[in-house]
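pasting for the record
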Amino acid sequence: APTETPTDAPNPTDTPEPIVAAPTHTPNPTDTPELIAEVSPELAAEHDSEVVAEVVEPEFAGETIQATWQELKPANAGPGPRYEHAIQYNPATNQLFVFGGRDGNQVFNDVWALNLDDLTWRPLAVNSPTAPLARFSTVMMVDAAGKNLYLATGQRQDNNVLNDVWRLDLTSETWQDLTATAGPGRPLATARPGEI
């Protein structure tokens, strides 16, 4: 049996009416600092549609914040120049951690902490019985309590990709390999430059 098409059904080949923007709204103090959409009956009538959204930008009064860069000058020597290293801030201790990376000649597996209160560098985990392989393009994070530093994946000097996971206990300064065993057909995740 033939089916009937409702006469008010939209035709898939019809081009929808554009949304018209005309910034005329002045926000009041209770408006949120995001784009504000209003229904404009005048614009709707003008463009022969039921609703036209008017998107406008808010205006703000008061002081503007000006950010400036300040070079920090540590009191002692820290890690040498490098690139493609991992860096992570720990708000619990106000420290900045740097791990690995490379300098054009070699790849590193050292980890350093910069105390941002007194601007002193300190190497970490120098006596740990185990440590991650030297690598670059790795992923690093600090846990919410600020007690552990996690490191995952990266690339070795020969450009082979690593897919291991390590934890550095920041109290005992010892590394632990947390790498899971991948099951059949389930390779571990890898990090590639530019994806992090």
